[in-house]
């Protein structure tokens, strides 16, 4: 069985990548902030900016494939610390890409729909990127350096994910469910404000992981969009989540993005075209209702 190294195994996507990939690969996961224990999976502490230690890990493990999922991913943190974001998101990607090229290994890099400026939506892989924030700029730059330095590489641009993490700790991506349940339990009294004019092709985290793991051993190179089949606003997603959780729709209210005082710019419509993924992968990309039912059934 071949070995796959997954960086950021403690993240929202990372845990799902590890558990799904365990049927296909011998998994070694790198964590940084939170120690991780997953049955039958080896996990190690690793810093993306400590290249000497990282090189020792790579040379010892000799992974056949690296799924580079770890990143400085909070847009506000990146905006406040651009040098750190550059070092973590771009520097580590270049380092891993060069190692994979020199050792003839596979590299799958996890990127984001936010590399686009959101002016048109339904973006295809060949559309020009125009990132608005420091976070998005570092991910776009990392895409370029991965493709430039590793011939056997794949960029998976993943849309906004929903669902539940594998590990027993709170994830930022679970914030809406937590807020709604707190409101239902009377802990919070204010409705959740969601934008009705900001659109994504939201995908369940397990569905995204399935796509990445299926693509990893395939001879797919370049860029691949991994997203749900439905363009949806944050507010409309909130309504569907309320329905599945049996929570009153009055617990959410709509707002306009243009009326909000957002410090870090976010694109308004980064819905993704997934025709390529559907043609190359065997998995299904369900709509929001189906995805939510699978999670909360």
How is this structure best summarized?
The chain is α/β, with parallel strands linked by helices and 297 residues long.
Give the SSE map.
Layout: E1 3-7, H1 12-21, E2 26-31, E3 42-45, H2 51-61, E4 65-68, H3 75-80, H4 82-103, E5 106-112, H5 134-149, E6 153-158, E7 161-162, H6 175-184, E8 192-195, E9 199-200, E10 203-204, H7 205-215, E11 222-226, E12 232-233, H8 234-245, E13 252-255, H9 275-280, H10 288-296
Parallel strand pairs: 1-2, 1-4, 2-3, 4-5, 5-6, 6-11, 7-10, 8-13
Antiparallel strand pairs: 9-12
Helix pairs in contact: 1-7, 4-5, 8-10
Class inferred from helices and paired strands: alpha/beta
Poorly predicted spans? none
Proportion of β residues?
Answer: 15-25%
CATH topology of the largest domain: Rossmann fold
Number of strands: 13
Report how far the terminal alpha carbons are from each other. 34 Å
CATH homologous superfamily placement of the largest domain: NAD(P)-binding Rossmann-like Domain
> Helical proportion?
25-40%
Can you tell me the CATH class of the largest domain? Alpha Beta
Mean pLDDT across all amino acids: 93
For the record, the CATH architecture of the largest domain stands as 3-Layer(aba) Sandwich
Strand order of the main beta sheet, please? 3-2-1-4-5-6-11
The rough form would be described as: globular
Largest sheet: 7 strands, parallel
- Give the helix tally: 10
Word description of this protein:
The chain is of the alpha/beta class and 297 residues long. The protein folds into two domains: 3-161 and 203-226, Rossmann fold (3-Layer(aba) Sandwich); 166-201 and 230-271 and 288-296, UDP-galactose 4-epimerase, domain 1, CATH 3.90.25.10. It is 38% helix and 18% strand. The chain is built from ten helices and 13 strands. It has helices at residues 12-21, 51-61, 75-80, 82-103, 134-149, 175-184, 205-215, 234-245, 275-280, 288-296, and strands at residues 3-7, 26-31, 42-45, 65-68, 106-112, 153-158, 161-162, 192-195, 199-200, 203-204, 222-226, 232-233, 252-255. Strands 3-2-1-4-5-6-11 form a seven-stranded parallel beta sheet, with helices on both faces. Strands 7-10 form a two-stranded parallel ribbon. A two-stranded parallel ribbon has the order 8-13.
């Amino acid at each position: 069985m071949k070995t796959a190294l997954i960086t950021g195994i403690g993240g929202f996507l990372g845990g799902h990548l590890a558990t799904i990939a365990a049927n296909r690969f011998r998994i070694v996961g790198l964590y940084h902030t939170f120690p991780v224990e997953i049955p039958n999976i080896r996990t190690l502490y690793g810093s993306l900016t400590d290249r000497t230690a990282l090189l020792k890990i790579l040379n010892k493990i000799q992974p056949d494939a690296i799924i580079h999922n770890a990143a400085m991913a909070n847009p506000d943190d990146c905006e406040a610390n651009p040098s750190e974001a550059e070092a973590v998101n771009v520097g580590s990607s270049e380092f891993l890409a060069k190692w994979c090229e020199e050792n003839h290994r596979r590299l799958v890099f996890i990127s984001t729909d936010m590399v686009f400026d959101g002016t048109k939506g339904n973006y295809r892989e060949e559309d020009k990127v125009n990132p608005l924030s420091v976070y998005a700029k570092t991910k776009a730059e990392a895409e370029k350096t991965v493709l430039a330095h590793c011939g056997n590489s794949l960029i998976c641009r993943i849309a906004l994910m929903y669902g539940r993490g594998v590990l027993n700790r709170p994830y930022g991506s679970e914030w809406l469910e937590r807020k709604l349940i707190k409101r239902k339990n009377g802990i919070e009294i204010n409705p959740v404000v969601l934008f009705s004019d900001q659109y994504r092709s939201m995908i369940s985290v397990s569905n995204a992981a399935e796509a990445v793991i299926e693509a990893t051993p395939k001879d797919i190179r370049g860029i691949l969009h991994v997203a749900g089949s439905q363009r949806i606003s944050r507010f409309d997603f909130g309504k569907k989540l309320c329905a599945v959780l049996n929570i009153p729709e009055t617990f959410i209210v709509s707002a306009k993005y243009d009326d909000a005082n957002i410090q870090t710019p976010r694109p308004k419509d980064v819905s993704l075209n997934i025709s390529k993924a559907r043609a190359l992968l065997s998995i299904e990309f369900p709509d929001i209702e189906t995805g939510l039912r699978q999670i909360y059934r």
